[in-house]
Specification:
2 domains; 7-stranded mixed beta sheet; 14 helices; binds pyridoxal-5'-phosphate; alpha/beta; Aspartate Aminotransferase, domain 2; Aspartate Aminotransferase, domain 1; 18% strand; globular
Length: 414
């Protein structure tokens, strides 16, 4: 089916949750996606931070092929050979002790919220004075279910579905005084993204992170670090919190963990894990043999190919090149990010929309988030030559924008 007929069919058959961009992709190789006309696109988005090893990576193809001929699903009523293997890798790279496997970022975050309530309940049963409320941050994004969306700041995501999960208060981003003022015994957890993604690529400050850690330690509340977008190597370290030298009680991951096979995970300390006993939480598909086998292949490939160092090096180069562009073009008002989680903030939403669309016209995929920010979440295997291609295109497009070239089409996200 060609794009026009796919668009027509989807407009009749699908609930209209997305404003898709008018491109139909049929295959991918490395850092390139190919459309129905055989046109290749340099992908600097990797499916919103998912295809970490790029497309058709041999380790991923081999893991899927081998496991699909053995066992795809068992349910969590039985054991299979890969759960413990994966959990061992995840505890080793995170510094945390326990793992719950599920199917998406939202599910992982829901598990973290439920764990926070259960942990506080257990402390209350032991006579501690601790409540059930959550502190989350302005510009946060934690997912779309009733609990996750309640901790997601943008009102447009919550309003149509209210009342969502009660008991959430938002703290001004990186405002330590506001955090201290809003923290109390009522709080069972502080929710942060070490690097906010949907909110426009905003790293948290060391002072704010350290203060949140101290406050949680003072009452037994849990510090939740949502690494669904920033985790598993995206920033040049396995977890963004490792750049700060601060260990949260709980972290959540998803997106790149199985390179496109749906999977999420919540990781936590032994102390926090004691709040969960058999039957309290669960999932049918979560942690299945296929997803686990692919996740193991992804982590082993990142280690074998020394990709954390590669992400650090290429990420720094990309950041520098974007900063040089910003020094030459006033309309690039800020460049932010760590590793290969980068954002270039433009002077207006219209300009950001136009630039993103013109990059697509040049077969370069980026994403616009938070209205004005071009977001770059490329595959970890991206090379300097790809960065040079993108920077050259961006430079030409932005220069032309000055010369008053006409704006082009729309870009959706999330
Ligand atoms: C920080 C963060 N948390 C949670 C989510 C939700 O993950 P999912 O879309 O897999 O449910 C996302 C998705 O973009 C995210 O970036």
């Amino acid at each position: 089916m060609k794009l026009p007929s796919v668009q027509a069919a989807e407009s009749k058959l699908l609930i209209q949750t997305y404003e898709r961009n008018p491109y139909l992709f049929v295959s991918g190789q490395g850092v390139y996606l190919r459309d129905e006309n055989g046109q290749d696109y340099l992908d600097l988005l990797s499916g919103i931070g998912v295809s970490a090893l790029g497309y058709s990576h041999p380790a991923v193809v081999e893991a899927i092929t081998r496991q699909s001929t053995r066992l795809v699903h068992t349910s969590n009523l039985f054991f299979h050979e890969h759960t413990a293997e994966l959990a061992l890798r995840l505890t080793e790279i995170s510094g945390l002790d326990r793992v719950f496997l599920c199917n998406s970022g939202t599910e992982a975050w829901e598990a973290a919220l439920k764990l926070s309530r259960a942990s506080a309940g257990r402390l209350r049963a032991a006579g501690r004075n601790i409540g059930t409320k959550f502190l989350a941050l302005e510009h946060s994004f934690h997912g779309r279910s009733m609990g996750a969306v309640a901790t997601t700041h943008k009102e447009k995501y919550r309003k149509p579905f209210e009342p969502v999960m009660p008991g959430v208060e938002f703290v001004r981003f990186n405002d330590v005084d506001d955090l201290r003022a809003k923290f109390s015994d009522d709080i069972c957890a502080i929710c942060i993204e070490p690097v906010q993604g949907e909110g426009g690529i905003h790293p948290i400050s060391r002072e704010f992170f350290a203060t949140a850690r101290k406050l949680c330690d003072s009452t037994g509340a849990l510090l939740l670090a949502d690494e669904i977008q920033s985790g598993l190597g995206r920033t040049g370290k396995w977890f963004a919190y490792q750049h700060y030298g601060i260990l949260p009680d709980v972290t959540t991951i998803a997106k790149p963990i199985a390179n496109g096979i749906p999977m999420g995970a919540m990781l936590c300390t032994n102390a926090a894990a004691e709040a969960i006993t058999p039957g309290m939480h669960g999932t049918t598909f979560g942690g299945g043999p296929l997803a686990c086998a692919v996740a193991i292949a992804v982590i082993d490939t990142i280690k074998r190919d020394d990709l954390l160092k590669h992400i650090h090096d290429v990420g720094d180069f990309f950041h520098e090149e974007l900063s040089k562009l910003a020094a030459r073009h006033d309309c690039i008002v800020d460049v932010r990010g760590i590793g290969l989680m980068l954002g270039a903030e433009l002077s207006s939403a219209d300009l950001a929309k136009s630039v993103a669309a013109q990059l697509m016209d040049r077969h370069i995929i980026v994403n616009r988030t938070n209205e004005t920010v071009l977001r770059f979440l490329p595959p970890f295997i991206l090379e300097r030559k790809h960065v040079e291609t993108a920077i050259k295109a961006l430079d030409e497009i932005v220069s032309a924008a000055y010369a008053g070239a006409a704006p082009a089409g729309e870009q959706s996200h999330g």
